[in-house]
Amino acid sequence: MHxxxxxxxxxxxxxxxxxxxxxxxxxxxxxxxxxxxxxAILGIRTGTIAFGPQEMMPDIQYEDHDxxxxxxxLYPRLPExxxxxxxSDCAQIVADVIGSDTMQPWTDGTFxxxxxxxATATPWHNDECLFPLRGHHAPSMWIALTDVDLNNAxxxxxxxxxxxxxxxxxxWALDGVKPPPNFHTWxxxxxxxxxxxxxxxxxxxxxxxxxxxxxxxxxxxxPRTAGQFGRRVAFSLRWLGSDIRYENNxxxxxxxxxxxxDIKEGEPLPAQLFPTTWRRNT
Length: 282
Description:
Low-confidence stretches: none
Radius of gyration: 18 Å
Oligomer: single chain
CATH architecture: Sandwich
Strand content: 15-25%
Distance between the termini: 12 Å
């Protein structure tokens, strides 16, 4: 077991659906990842770098408005980002918390929030709704690259939503597709978080801290408070662990990797598409 992972941390993850690993990453690591992200954003803004298509991987998603930057799918295109993750304890920490014997990096997200607009808040959602997967070992590893207090857009979660037996039809679901019977409406998700008895927890963290969020956990972020100086930066990576199997999700648009002949219903995602970067010694 990694020294940063305690039984209390594991139990919190299992009961609440998210857990907080204090000081998971060094300040040197934080500085390195921050530089990689800042350089990428500057390069995109100035047109000095461009990220082309990556075989079997989704295109870059890029939002930049109102003091809010969202970048998705940088990880396969930036060797510096991959090196920072793969030459760190990230994978083992997450694996020890979720109980996985292998770890495959899947999809990443970078979030930079500098403004005071309401748009800097992340709306309520869960990650699983659009996944073409089944299993519990697909958490989001969310690492703070700046301190995040109550005024700086902290993550908030609905406790216990990780135990839901059902899934949700995302607000981004394909039109005209009949969802499977175990999918509940997005309106129900929103009703749950706005209910007067909802157990909403807000996670204040320091730079280098890690939140591990179960794929079913309903979560969001608060907006930055007016007058809050500085910025809030976070890096997230979703992993595939040892219980994950491919399962077509008819409500979501197909990702390019789903066209690979190596993808088989009910089987793990193949290592030739998503390399295994960590394996437990047995």
